[in-house]
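Table S2 (text version). Query chain:
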Amino acid sequence: MSQEITDDFIELARYYAQAEKELEIQYWVNISIQYTDNAGNVVKLFTYDLPREVYERREWVVEWRKAKLTCLYPKVGIQRFISYYDKRLGNNPNLTADLRKLTSAKAQVTKARKQIEKYVAYHKENNMFFDESTDSDLIAARQKLLVKISNVQEAEKRLKAKIVEIKQSPHFKKK
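Corresponding structure-token output:
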């Protein structure tokens, strides 16, 4: 039982990875080491902007920097804040949430397609009376797949609309 759950989880992770690859997501991390002074102002001591893979391999560098700053400022509470984002879209939480929804929707479509393919292949081999056009389970699965595909299209439209909205806002900085 637990092996099946683990296999399902690994398979879903593969679908997510495939969707992220199709969307060309570039995961980066913004790390800020800071403290709050007596007046309540945030004082940034150091910031990093790195690819996520580099951060995950070299996390000790950030910890070392935080320890050094703790030694330099022993009476204040040094804090580390981490923010993951897609490099192309910037560090905007609204876009990140929509991107996650789009990735999830694409993964669900891939999973549903794979299940339909397995179902059809199995029944073609093992059921000589199998007819794709009359099988009620297959028809229902394909209808659900169409709904999931429309969810992907809606998520893409939402994300594109938000990107346009942000680019047209007066606070947007062109690089």
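Notes on Table S2: The longest strand covers residues 27-36. The chain has a mean pLDDT of 82.
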